[in-house]
Amino acid sequence: MIVQDIIDIMQSHFPEHIQEEWDKTGFQLGDRQQKVSKIMVGLDADIRTLDEAIDQGCDMLITHHPFLFNKLDLDFKTSTGRFIQKAIIHHIAIYSAHTNLDKVAMNVWLAEAMQLRHIEVCEDDGLVRKGQLSQPMSMNDFVSHLKQTLHVDVVKVAGKKDAIQSVAVCGGSGSDYIDVLKNQVDAYVTGDLKYHAGMQAYDDDFLLVDVGHHVEVIMVKKLADILREESSLEVVESTSPDYYQYL
């Protein structure tokens, strides 16, 4: 198989045209005609993940977060420049599926991991999903449930709700949806929440739970399994560690 064959598989599941206008989803770097024998799937397109791909002898790296977000910088002294230089030297093609994957699958995977039922789309843009717990939970039980099902050690909680059953989820940064969701569900699970979002949760009798951006790492195994099923190639999973430590 060649790089373009893998891109076609990705497009069949996560069409690039549905990405957000500001996003940089798609083919990032490399030769579309290059032969591929081994792929790495990771959360972030960064030097750490690229080094893993090199060590594993991969020809292609597929990530959720792209590296081509800001102005292209080919200075090899910068992190982006070093990333590009190293990928070219080692002949590793780079492809990222970001908000298109979010819309199709990310929050479905998270909702399923949280054991929600009757999962449905919340908003027209297709990003947020909502569903129901099998039975109401207290706030403390719900937080414990999230830690167990999403494999996180700590969460940040604001607001209060005596009984939680309806839940919305948006992996990554989901603060833009708070105003809409506060009247639809008992609790909203997302990441990267700012300080004043907490005040809003208290004012509106609504539970906000920040599980961190890194919870999106769920996509690594899910996407790797799709590629294993639809290609004849070896697919390996990056360790994709969190950038932050919680001390």
UniProtKB/TrEMBL annotation:
Chain sites annotated for binding a divalent metal cation 2:
H64
What GO molecular function terms would the record report? Answer: metal ion binding
Which InterPro entries does this UniProt record tie to the protein? DUF34/NIF3, DUF34/NIF3_sf
What is the protein named?
GTP cyclohydrolase 1 type 2 homolog
Q: Which GO terms describe its cellular component?
A: cytoplasm
What's in the keyword line of the UniProt record?
Metal-binding
Q: What's a Pfam family this protein contains? A: DUF34_NIF3
User: Which residues does the record give as a divalent metal cation 1 binding sites?
Assistant: H65, D102, H213, E216
Species classification: Bacteria, Bacillati, Bacillota, Erysipelotrichia, Erysipelotrichales
Q: Which family does it belong to?
A: Belongs to the GTP cyclohydrolase I type 2/NIF3 family.
Q: Which domain of life is it from?
A: Bacteria
Q: Which residues cross the membrane?
A: none
| Keyword match Magnesium | no
